[in-house]
Write a structure and sequence with these properties.
Elements lengths: L19 H18 L1 H21 L10 H21 L2 H18 L5 H10 L2 H19 L5 H29 L2 H17 L15 H5 L2 H14 L7 E2 L2 E2 H8 L8 H26 L8 E2 L20 H5 L12 E11 L2 H5 L6 E12 L4 E6 L5 H9 L6 E8 L2 E2 L2 H7 E4 L11 H12 L6 H14 L16 E2 L2 H13 L5 E4 L8 H16 L3 E5 L5 H5 L3 E6 L3 E7 L5 H8 L13 H8 L2 H7 L3 H6 L2 H13 L19 H17 L2 H21 L10 H42 L5 H31 L5 H27 L4 H17 L12 H8 L2 H14 L12 H9 L6 H25 L6
Parallel strand pairs: 3-10, 6-12, 6-13, 9-11, 11-12
Antiparallel strand pairs: 1-2, 4-5, 4-7, 7-8, 13-14
Helix pairs in contact: 1-5, 2-3, 2-6, 3-7, 3-10, 3-11, 4-7, 5-12, 6-7, 7-8, 7-10, 7-12, 8-29, 10-11, 10-12, 17-18, 17-19, 17-27, 19-20, 27-30, 28-29, 28-30, 29-30, 29-31, 29-32, 29-34, 30-31, 30-36, 31-32, 31-34, 31-36, 34-36
The structure holds adenosine-5'-triphosphate and magnesium ion (MG).
The site of magnesium ion has 3 residues, from α15.
C-alpha cells in the first residue's frame, strides 16, 4: 500500500461535509440567527394578537355573557371559534417567510451544503417557543375575562388546544409555501385551504347538514377537531351542569352544534391535532426534498433588433448632421437655454450624522454650482459616485420632494417656474419605470396624448410618435409588452430606449438624462448614445450624467460639467475634438502627468482630478477652476444668457396641464383598460377563484336556502352567506394591492412630469374595476343562488346580486385605499389584514348585534361587512312569516336574535352605495395627498 501524502479532505467520500449532528447544529444556529434578525415581524404579530385579544375580551365580556339557554351557549361557542380562527390566521405569515428563503435553500441544497431534512427540522422546531408565547398570550388574556369555566385544569386544556392549533396552522402554511413556491400560487392555495377548513370546521355548518360528498372534508378539517375538543372542554364544565330535557344544558349546546359530547373527544382532538402537525411538517420536508425552483424567472421579449447595425462613427458630430437634422422635426418646438448661477441645495442633517456629533442642522449637498446648457449642445455631467450629479439634475428639473434650494435658475433668461418648465422639459430617470401591461407603442401614444399641446390633432400625434420610434429604433418592438424588469418583457437596454422615447414624444426643448448607459453593454450603450446624439442634433438642449464612458461615447459630447465630491464643479467647458480642450486644461496644471497615447481621456481626467491627487499635489481643483479664463468666460456666458433676448416672451400656458380634466380621465382610463385586460394573473385568476368558490359553496350548501323550518337550518343558510362574503371580500382586497402598488410608482413619475393631476388617475383606477367586479359578482351570484336554492324571485335575486357586487367593489377599493395610505404593498397587506379579523368578529354572525356589549355596538355599525351580511340575510329571509319548530316566525327570529329588520332594506342599500363612494374617495384623496417617494 502506497503512502499518500495528500490531506484527508482532498478527495472526500462523504456526501456532506459534516456529520448529521453538526449539520443539524449549523442549520439550527442559522435559523435562530434569522429569527433574531427578523424579530420585528414576530413582535408585530404578537402585538396584533394582543390587540385582537383585547377586543375579544371586551366584546365577550363576562358580565354580558349569560348561561341560561342554548342561545347563550352559542355566544360562548362563537367566542371559542373566533379564538381558533385568529390563531389559525396568525400562521399565514409563514407563507411569505417560507417562500422568501426558498431560492437560497434550493441553491444550497443542490450544492450539497446540507440535506433537506436538516433544513426542514429547524424551520419547524425552532419556532415552537413562539407558539407557546402566542397561545399563552391569547388564553391568559381572554380565558377568565370572557368567563370560561374557572377550573384551572380546563384553563390549561384550552391552552393546549390553542397551542396545537397554532402549530398546526404554521405547519400548514409552511407546507403550502414550500409547495406553491411562488407568492401568487401559494396565496391562492392558502386561501383555498383556509376556506375549506373554516367552512367545514363545524361552526359555519353543522355536521348533520354537511352533504355526504363533503363529509371527507369535514373529517379532514383540523379545525373541526379543534372545535370539538375545545367545546367539550368548556361545556362539560361545572357551570353548564343545569339539567335540560333529561340531560345537561352543556351537553345540549354541544350536540346542537353538531359536535360529540363525550369527554374523551377532548383527547381525540389532541391526538388528531398532533397527527396533523406531524403530517404537515413531514409534507413540508418532502416538498423541500422533491421540488425545485418554480419556473424560469427571466424571459425576454424577442430581440427583434439584433440585426441593427451600430455605427459608432455616426454618433460623432458633423458626419451625418445634415441627414439626422431632419429627424423628429415634424412638430415645431422652441429651443431654450438653461442657466443656473450659484445653486445651493441642502437637506436637514440626517439623524445618523447628528449622532456622530455634527452640530449644524443642515447638510449642504451642492455648494453653489453655476453653468449654462444651450440648445444643440450635448453636455456630459460627470464626477465620482456621490459627487451630487443626480442631486443637481433633480434640483434643476424640479424633481426634489424635500430639502432647501437656493440660487438663480433661468430658462432663456426668464426665472424658472416649475409649472411651465414641466411642460417644456423631459427627465429620463435612472430607473426605468413603466406600466408593465401595455405595449411600447401604447406607452408612447399615451405619453404623447397627455403631453403634447391640445392643438396637435390625432393624425399628427400618431405620425410624431412613429417619427420618435424611428429615431430611437423601437419600431421592431412596437407591439411588445413592456413587462416587469427582471421578470419578463423588455430587456434593460430596450427599456432605457423606451424611457427616452417616452420623454421625446412630449416634444420637450430641454431633456435631462440620468445615466442612460449604465448597466448596458457596449453595443446597447452605443444605440442609446446614437439616439441621444440624434436628439441633440434636432436642436434640443440635452444634459446626460454618465459613468465610465468609452472613448467613442465620451467624444460624442460637446461639453463637460465635471463635479467633485461635496457638490462643487471643477471643470465646466468644451470637450473639444478628440478631447483636446479638456486634455489641454488639465495638462496645463502644474504637476499633472501627461496623458498616454490611446488612453481613455474620460478615465484619465477622473484619475488626475481625484481627491487623492489633490492631496498629493496640495491644490484645490475648484480653486484652480475659479481662477481660470474658462471660469470667467463661463460667467460671462451665464450673464449673457440670463437676460431675455429682445422680442421674446416668458413661457406661458393657459392651463397647468396640456389636456383638459376630461381628456385626462379618458386617457388614463384608456391605459388602465389595457392594463387590466392584459393582466390575467390578476383578473383571470380572481375570476377563476370566484367561480371555483361558487361551485364549492354551491355543493357544500346545496339546497339549504329553501330550508327554514328550524333555527339550525336558518343558521346554516346565514353561515353560508357569512363565509362566502368574508372570503371573497378578503380575496378581492388583497389581490388588488400589488397591482395598485406597481401602478403607483408609474403614477409618481407621470405626475412629476406634469402629465395629469392625481384625480383623473384615481378616477380611472376606480372606474376600471367596475366591469370586472360586476362580471365576478354576476357569475358568482348566479351559480350560488341556483345551487343553494334561494327563493327564485327577481327582486330577491337582484338584491343578492346588488349586495354581492357592492361588497366586492368596496372591498376592492378598501384594498386600494390601504395601498394609498402606506409606502408599499407589504405594509398595506399587514395593515389590511389586521382589520380582516375585526370585520370578521363584528360581522354579526359570530356574535349577533343584540349580544354585542353597548360599548362595541358602534363598531358593528362601522363595519362594512356587517352591513352586507345584514342586507343579504334580511333581503332573503326577512319577509317570511313561516313558523319555525320553536313557534317563532322566521321574521320574528331574525328580528329578535340578529336584530335584522326588513323595513331597513332601503337604508342598507344606501349605506352600500355610500361605502363604495367612501372608499373610492379616500383612495383618490390619499393618492393625491401622500407622496411616499423620497428624493
Ligand atoms: N436626501 C438626502 N439626505 C442626505 N444625503 C443625501 C440626500 N440625497 C443625496 N445625499 C447625498 O448626497 C451625495 C450626492 O448624491 P447623488 O445621488 O447626487 O450622487 P451621484 O453623483 O448621482 O452618485 P452616483 O454616481 O452614485 O449616482 C451622496 O453622498 C448622497 O449620500
Ligand atoms: Mg446618481
Amino acid at each position: 500500500m502506497t503512502n499518500t501524502k495528500s490531506h484527508p479532505a482532498a478527495l472526500t467520500t462523504e456526501k456532506y461535509g459534516l456529520n448529521k449532528k453538526e449539520l443539524l447544529k449549523a442549520c439550527v444556529d442559522r435559523e435562530i440567527l434569522l429569527m433574531k434578525r427578523n424579530s420585528f415581524i414576530y413582535i408585530f404579530k404578537l402585538f396584533q394578537l394582543l390587540v385582537l385579544s383585547f377586543i375579544t375580551l371586551t366584546l365577550f365580556f363576562r358580565t354580558e355573557m349569560h348561561r341560561r339557554t342554548t342561545e347563550d351557549g352559542g355566544i360562548y361557542v362563537g367566542a371559542l371559534f373566533f379564538g381558533i380562527i385568529m390563531i389559525t390566521f396568525n400562521g399565514m405569515s409563514e407563507i411569505s417567510m417560507t417562500i422568501a428563503k426558498l431560492p437560497v435553500y434550493y441553491k444550497q441544497r443542490d450544492y450539497l451544503f446540507y440535506p433537506s431534512w436538516s433544513y426542514a427540522l429547524p424551520a419547524w422546531v425552532v419556532k415552537i417557543p413562539i407558539s407557546f408565547i402566542e397561545a399563552a398570550l391569547w388564553t391568559i388574556l381572554t380565558y377568565y375575562v370572557v368567563g370560561f369555566d374557572p377550573n384551572i385544569a380546563r384553563f390549561f386544556k384550552q391552552y393546549l388546544i390553542l397551542l396545537l392549533v397554532n402549530q398546526m396552522s404554521s405547519g400548514l402554511f409552511r407546507f403550502i409555501g414550500a409547495l406553491g413556491r411562488n407568492m401568487i400560487v401559494a396565496n391562492t392555495f392558502g386561501s383555498f385551504a383556509l376556506l375549506l377548513i373554516v367552512a367545514l370546521g363545524g361552526f359555519v355548518i353543522v355536521r348533520e347538514d354537511v352533504k355526504k360528498w363533503w363529509l371527507w372534508g369535514y373529517w379532514s378539517s383540523p379545525l373541526m377537531y379543534a372545535m370539538n375538543g375545545i367545546v367539550v372542554n368548556e361545556f362539560l364544565g361545572h357551570q353548564w351542569k343545569a339539567p335540560l330535557n333529561g340531560t345537561t344544558l352543556g351537553k345540549t349546546i354541544i350536540t346542537s352544534g353538531g359536535f360529540y359530547a363525550e369527554a374523551y373527544w377532548y383527547w381525540i382532538s389532541i391526538a388528531a391535532l398532533l397527527g396533523f402537525i406531524l403530517v404537515l411538517n413531514l409534507c413540508f420536508a418532502l416538498s423541500l426534498a422533491i421540488l425545485g425552483p418554480f419556473g424560469k424567472s427571466q424571459s425576454n421579449a424577442a430581440h427583434a433588433d439584433n440585426d441593427t447595425e451600430v455605427e459608432l462613427s455616426a454618433m460623432t458630430t458633423g458626419d451625418d448632421a445634415t441627414q439626422t437634422k431632419k429627424k423628429g422635426m415634424i412638430l415645431p418646438f422652441e429651443p431654450h437655454s438653461m442657466t443656473f448661477n450659484d445653486v445651493k441645495y441642502s437637506v436637514d442633517m440626517p439623524q445618523e450624522m447628528k449622532e456622530q456629533g455634527v452640530s449644524e442642522d443642515r447638510l449642504l449637498l451642492l455648494k453653489g454650482v453655476s453653468g449654462a446648457f444651450r440648445p444643440g449642445v450635448l453636455t456630459a455631467l460627470m464626477g465620482v459616485s456621490g459627487a451630487g450629479k443626480t442631486t443637481l439634475m433633480d434640483v434643476l428639473a424640479g424633481r426634489k420632494t424635500g430639502g432647501y434650494i437656493e440660487g438663480d435658475v433661468r430658462i432663456s433668461g426668464y426665472p424658472k417656474k416649475q409649472e411651465t418648465f414641466a411642460r417644456i422639459s423631459g427627465y429620463c430617470e435612472q430607473n426605468d419605470i413603466h406600466s408593465p401591461q401595455v405595449t411600447v407603442y401604447e406607452s408612447l401614444l399615451y405619453s404623447a396624448w397627455l403631453r403634447l399641446a391640445t392643438d396637435v390633432d390625432e393624425q399628427t400625434r400618431k405620425s410624431f410618435v412613429d417619427e420618435v420610434m424611428d429615431l430611437v429604433e423601437l419600431n421592431p418592438l412596437r407591439d411588445a409588452l413592456v413587462g416587469l424588469p427582471g421578470v419578463n418583457g423588455l430587456s434593460t437596454e430596450q427599456r432605457k430606449r423606451l424611457t427616452i422615447a417616452v420623454e421625446l414624444v412630449a416634444n420637450p426643448s430641454i431633456i435631462f438624462m440620468d445615466e442612460p448607459t449604465s448597466g448596458l453593454d457596449a453595443r446597447a450603450a452605443a444605440i442609446v448614445m446614437r439616439t441621444v446624439r440624434n436628439t441633440v442634433d434636432t436642436g434640443r438642449t440635452v444634459v446626460c450624467t454618465i459613468h465610465q464612458p468609452s472613448i467613442d461615447i465620451f467624444e460624442a459630447f460637446d461639453e463637460l460639467f465635471l463635479m467633485k465630491r461635496g457638490g462643487q464643479e471643477l471643470y465646466v467647458g468644451p470637450v473639444g475634438r478628440h478631447s483636446c480642450e479638456l486634455i489641454k486644461y488639465f495638462e496645463d496644471i502644474n504637476g499633472i502627468s501627461k496623458i498616454k497615447d490611446g488612453y481613455n481621456p474620460a478615465t484619465w481626467m477622473l484619475e488626475v482630478s481625484a481627491s487623492a491627487q489633490e492631496m498629493a499635489l496640495g491644490v484645490d481643483f475648484t480653486e484652480i477652476y475659479q481662477n481660470s479664463d474658462l471660469y470667467r468666460r463661463n460667467k460671462a456666458l451665464i450673464a449673457e444668457l440670463s437676460v431675455p433676448r429682445p422680442g421674446t416672451n416668458d413661457l406661458y400656458f393657459p392651463t397647468q396641464y396640456s389636456q383638459s380634466f376630461l381628456v385626462q380621465c379618458m386617457v388614463c382610463l384608456w391605459k388602465q383598460r389595457w392594463s387590466y385586460w392584459r393582466n390575467p394573473p390578476y383578473t383571470a385568476v380572481r375570476f377563476a377563484f370566484t367561480t371555483f368558490i361558487a361551485v364549492m359553496f354551491g355543493t357544500m350548501f346545496w339546497d339549504l336556502g329553501s330550508k327554514k323550518n328550524t333555527q339550525r337550518e336558518l343558521t346554516n343558510a346565514i353561515g353560508s352567506i357569512y363565509a362566502a362574503t368574508l372570503f371573497l371580500a378578503i380575496q378581492n382586497a388583497s389581490a388588488v394591492q400589488p397591482v395598485v402598488d406597481i401602478e403607483r410608482t408609474v403614477f409618481y413619475r407621470e405626475r412629476a412630469a406634469g402629465m395629469y393631476s392625481a384625480l383623473p388617475y384615481a378616477f380611472a383606477q376606480v372606474l376600471v374595476e367596475i366591469p370586472y367586479v360586476f362580471a365576478q359578482s354576476a357569475v358568482y351570484s348566479i351559480i350560488v343562488y341556483a345551487m343553494i336554492g334561494f327563493d327564485w324571485t327577481a327582486a330577491k335575486f337582484f338584491w343578492y346580486l346588488f349586495f354581492q357586487f357592492c361588497s366586492l367593489l368596496y372591498m376592492t377599493y378598501y384594498g386600494m385605499m390601504t395601498v394609498a395610505i402606506t409606502p408599499n404593498a407589504n405594509i398595506a397587506a399587514i395593515i389590511a389584514a389586521s382589520f380582516y379579523g375585526l370585520f370578521n368578529v363584528f360581522s354579526g354572525f359570530i356574535i349577533p348585534r343584540p349580544r354585542i356589549p353597548v360599548w362595541w355596538r358602534w363598531y358593528y355599525w362601522g363595519n362594512p361587512l356587517a352591513w352586507t351580511l345584514y342586507g343579504m340575510v334580511v333581503s332573503q329571509f326577512g319577509d317570511f312569516d313561516d313558523r319555525l319548530t320553536s313557534g317563532e316566525t322566521v321574521k320574528g327570529y331574525l328580528r329578535r336574535y340578529f336584530g335584522y329588520k326588513h323595513d331597513f332594506l332601503p337604508a342598507i342599500a344606501g349605506v352600500h352605495i355610500g361605502l363604495v363612494l367612501f372608499f373610492g374617495f379616500i383612495f383618490a384623496y390619499c393618492i393625491r395627498a401622500f407622496n411616499f417617494q423620497k428624493r
